[in-house]
Amino acid sequence: MAGIGVRLNRIFGKNTISSNLLGVSYSAGVTVTPMFVIIGNIMLMSKVLEFDKVGYASRELFSCTVLYIFIFSLLTSSPFNAVLSRYMSDIIYKEQFEDILPCFYVGLVMNVALSALFGIPFCIWEFMVGHIGILYVFTGFCGYMALALVFYSMLYLSICKDYTKISLFFLLGMALAFALSLVFAWGFHMKVPSAMLLALVIGFAFIACAELAVVKYYFKHNSGRYRPVLGYFKKYFSLVLTNFFYTLGLYVHNFVYWFTGLRMTVADTFICAQPYDMATCIAMFTNISATVILIARLEMNFHEKYKQYSEAVIGGRASDIRNAQKRMFHQLAVELMNLVRIQFIITVVVFLLCIVLLPQFGFAGLVMRIYPCLAVGYFILFLMYSEIIFLYYFNDNNGAMLTAASFVAATALASVFASGLAEKWYGVGVVIGAFVGWTVAYMRLRWVEKHMEVHVFCRGMLIKMVIGIPDPPKVYDAYAKLKESKEEAEHG
Asked: Which contiguous run of DSSP H or E holds residue 264?
């Protein structure tokens, strides 16, 4: 994300109130705009088309369809992103840009195949058991596949530093979706839920096609080397698990409550826990600014210290390396503490606003009783994610995988336990899981700091390792050599 850092440094470097506001707005725009645009568009369509007057069963079916589209498209995309990002970073460093399209195509096929592997059986179940119309089922499946492609293609635009275009595509796609929803509902007299769903699918497809076009525009040459991409999945399989475990951890507590007393079944197919799911959404929005703060501070402060340490390792003296290392880890500690301070203030303010204002918009009762504990959990969760980013900086893939695995396991087990407690403690599973993951990541960062020299200088090999029959350990025989010299002298 160096592209963000360069622009943020220019903006914040002016040290004025207006420049600070502009910097915060820019960093927020390039990171969380897509999500807010989609949610805002759904709310706007619902208001204009009077979605609240639609029958309860139809409203719940639409809500569950959109919920499943988002959750499972994220889950099926998550195993590939980290490995493909690592592969692209390496080939960009080597300036082998012709290898990016093979990487894109391999990841695209794998993503589509995995998404379809889970999506098609569910759609068959939805049609056969839920008796939902085939056109509605097919529309939902197309939306699921289109959003999976959107999330996948965003990875390549991020590598190109084209965050502005990502936000622009989402704005145009959702504007198109809003206009089409009016045309379908008022012009073609479609049912409101079907019109909204079809419009969203077309909007997602537009975003995916626009992203694919930009990728093809940037990378025109194809080397045809597909096998090295697959080799990276074997070499960096820990990245696959890390990204998948982290994404699963975001929703595993929801899955637990889908099978408790809060469970609601829609059309004998979809399962959800509406109060808990809504409280989770609000809690995530309460702390989403942590992502913006982390990106801004990493790009503006820590990245420079990391660069100085890397340059010292390449050509500096031992004292220069140690000093650069101390400055780097000191900056890491500073960034973590600043993130905690700033995000804590923001979370408290947003939390108070939610407690005061949301009941006036119909969010009350059980939702607001569950929300406070979840807000605390997501506060710790985003802090844990910042530590995973730092572990990636130090190439500690095993530490990141251990963090994500402990997070998802602790969250699942603690959520099962919390489901038997009072309603206000339902979110304690996220609190415990995030705290366990944060602790593991913190301990791993301390381990990396203590073993940084070994981590950097002692991971290479002087002799290349090969597979085959090893050479004999005896490489020179002094007596045989002496005997050979005597025989040559006698015959000479």
From this structure: strand 264-266
- Residue written as tokens 């195993």? 79
Length of the chain: 492
Q: Give, for 140, the enclosing helix (H) or strand (E).
A: helix 134-159
How far apart CA 309 and CA 307 sit, in angstroms, is 5
Q: Which of 218, 186, 194 is nearest to 48 (CA)?
A: 186
Q: pTM of the prediction? A: 0.79
Diameter of the chain measured on Cα atoms: 112
**383-418 exposure pattern, b = at least 16 Cβ within 10 A, e = fewer:** bbbbbbebbbbbebbebbbbbbbbbbbbbbbbbeeb
Q: Is the dihedral of CA 4, 280, 68, 42 positive or negative?
A: negative
Q: Are 433 and 382 in contact (CB under 8 A)?
A: no
Q: Report the distance separating Cα 475 and Cα 290, nearest Å.
A: 61
Q: What is the pLDDT of residues 45-96, one digit of tens each?
A: 888 888 888 888 888 888 888 888 888 888 888 888 778 877 877 787 777 7
Q: What is the pLDDT of residues 268-324, one digit of tens each?
A: 888 888 888 888 887 877 766 666 666 666 656 676 777 777 777 777 677 777 887
- Counting DSSP H helices and E strands in the chain, the numbers are 18, 2
- Torsion sign across C-alpha atoms 254, 256, 261, 267: positive
Separation of first and last alpha carbons in the chain: 74
Specify burial of residue 97 (Cβ count, 10 A radius: 0-12, 13-18, 19+): middle
Give the integer Cα–Cα distance in Å for 398 and 455.
Answer: 12
Token pair listed for 394:
């130090």
Query: Residue 4: what pLDDT?
Result: 46
Contacts for 387 with CB less than 8 Å, ≥ 6 apart: 336, 403, 438, 441, 442, 444, 445
275-300 b/e (C-beta count within 10 Å ≥ 16 → b): bbbbbbbbbbbbbbbbbbbbbbbbbb
Q: Which has the closest alpha carbon to 354: 282, 275, 430?
A: 282
